[in-house]
Design goal:
- A hairpin with a 5-residue loop joins strand 3 and strand 4.
- Strands 1-3-4-6-5 form a 5-stranded mixed beta barrel.
- The chain contains 3 helices and 6 strands, in the order E-E-E-E-H-E-E-H-H.
- By secondary structure, the protein is of the alpha+beta class.
Amino acid sequence: MNRVFLIGNLTRDPELSTTSNGLSVCRLSLAVSRRYSGQDGNRETDFFNITVWRAAAENCAKFLKKGSKVAVAGSLQNRTYDANDGTKRTVTDIVADEVEFLSSKNDNSLTQQEASENSKPVGDLQPVDDDTLPF
């Protein structure tokens, strides 16, 4: 059985392209924190290359960006290529069957400055009369 489940954050914006056959393909880079901390107390992070195909690829490119939190279910796939120096290299990718968006589009769209401009100081809040609430 070849099945992988990952939850992490995108390290860069998705890259959408189209094959010569007209299929959409999106490439993602996912940062996933390990469960346990190392001896220095820091949690290590692993980086995975994710490939998404067809309509899911188009949705990823449309709705995700660097920093988006996603859950990926898919399978491992190895590929080899010859590097410029003549050595043979092997790369392991994750081909996603499913990508679930865990952060909303708005979660990532506000910058720190915009978020602070949209927030009100506590003194500007109005008290609520519990007797007027419909529930």
